[in-house]
Write a structure and sequence with these properties.
Blueprint: E1 3-10, E2 19-25, H1 32-42, E3 46-52, E4 58-63, E5 68-69, H2 73-85, E6 95-99, E7 102-109, E8 112-118, E9 123-124, H3 129-135, E10 142-145, E11 150-153, H4 157-161, H5 167-170, E12 178-183, E13 191-197, E14 202-205, H6 212-223, E15 227-232, E16 238-243, E17 251-256, E18 258-266
Parallel strand pairs: 2-3, 4-6, 11-12, 13-15
Antiparallel strand pairs: 1-2, 1-18, 3-4, 4-5, 6-7, 7-8, 8-17, 9-10, 10-11, 12-13, 13-14, 15-16, 16-17
Length: about 270
């Protein structure tokens, strides 16, 4: 079986920035073990696998090099981008995905792609001292649980940028990862973040759409605004626009840009 694959830099319009994802277009469902081996071979934070369904939608799954995950924003963005740029969807058509997290829809908005995702609520908790020590933090402004990840609010963007975590304690947490966030230091964004998930094979993710399902509602509550811009300040960096109907909305619109940097054939 020969499979078309693409490497797409998501949440950026500049090659070699943002978050790279592999997108594999399958003719039909494939064995889970094969999917995981392909994701390990790609060795990116996420590899997306999609195949057409009879109703015109696409089945979409996401794998890190070591695990399948239930939701991934940047690989969804990359998948929608490929469907349009490769002529599999008309420019005005929406990309309809069936996923473990429910139906997801992506639409084009000029050079941007908007995605409709479920929100993740944030509950205040006390995080283990070992996790804070691993992050190199002693007294964060807020600590929370999104159900998917832990969230830590720091006092400044500089504090987030300067983090150099010890991945050992971070790899032992009972969540996918931990997102660290703070108010932005410039007018170009409202908040900044970084995301660490060594337990699922991603020490630091360059730009993480799914964490903004929690960051959007959290910062909407903090700022009183429901239209926000997040900068993920990893080494590669990227931008995520966030729109909610209200801070307690059930759905959030995440928007980003994408660019294809590689096209190829997979011949396992």
């Amino acid at each position: 079986m020969s499979v078309s694959f693409y490497q797409v830099d998501a949440f950026t319009n500049t090659p070699f920035a943002g978050n790279p994802a592999a997108v594999c277009l399958l003719p039909a469902p494939q064995d889970d073990d094969w999917l995981q081996k392909v994701a390990a071979e790609m060795n990116l934070s996420e590899t997306a696998f999609l195949h057409p369904r009879p109703d015109g939608s696409y089945q979409l799954r996401w794998f890190t090099p070591t695990h399948e995950v239930a939701l991934c924003g940047h690989a969804t963005l990359a998948s929608a981008h490929v469907l349009w740029t490769e002529g599999l969807l008309a420019p005005e058509a929406s990309a309809q995905f069936k996923t473990e997290s429910g139906p997801l829809v992506a639409r084009r908005d000029g050079s941007w792609i908007t995605m409709d995702f479920p929100t993740d609520s944030v509950t205040s908790i006390e995080l283990p001292a070992s996790l804070l020590e691993g992050l190199g933090l002693s007294a964060p402004t807020f600590m929370g649980d999104t159900g998917r990840d832990y969230l830590v609010h720091c006092d400044s963007a500089a504090s987030v940028r300067q983090l150099s975590p010890d991945m050992a304690p971070l790899s032992e947490i009972d969540r996918r990862g931990v997102v660290v966030t703070a108010p932005a230091a410039t007018e170009e964004a409202d908040f900044v973040s970084r995301f660490f998930a060594p337990g699922v094979g991603v020490p630091e993710d360059p730009v993480t759409g799914s964490t903004h399902c929690a960051l959007g509602p959290y910062w909407a509550t903090q700022t009183g605004r429901t239209t926000l811009v997040g900068h993920q300040i990893s080494a590669r960096g990227g931008t995520v626009r966030v729109d909610l109907d209200a801070p307690d909305a059930d759905r959030v619109t995440l928007s980003g840009q994408a660019t294809t940097v590689l096209r190829g054939r997979l011949d396992p």
